[in-house]
Predict the 3D structure of the following.
Amino acid sequence: MRLIIVFLIFSSFAFGQKIYQKTYHANGNLKAESWSENNLKTAYWKFYHNNGNLKKQGHFKNNKEVGYWRAYYNKGILKGVGQLDDQNPIGFWKFYYINKTLKKQGRFKNGLETGYWKFYHDNGILHSQGILNKGKEQVTGKYMTVLTNLKKKLFLKTA
């Protein structure tokens, strides 16, 4: 009986082992830190730029980014904040310029901009707003070019 209990305890440590890990950039600065379980990223993780400033932080489940996340510019200034599901943006997100003013805000569904979005100049003044459906403009009218996800897109400009 004792042998069985010892075996069960040992096997639970062997198969469900949580390890706190840190990885480093080539320059010696911290690159990432958090817990892994069975070689999968789990729990709350922090990632760092080469210069040591925070790059992004949020939750992992089974090696996938989920839940609330924050991303930062190289200088450590907040770049964007919102939720991820299976590594895709969902729900309400806000993005900021490096000068800390609001850049754009709106909702994502299945990783695509959907619904009402607002875009701002770097001085904080509203630039344009409109409705997107699956990342595309919803209505015809005057268009302007905006950068989203490193791609140029046409977006409805409203007065």
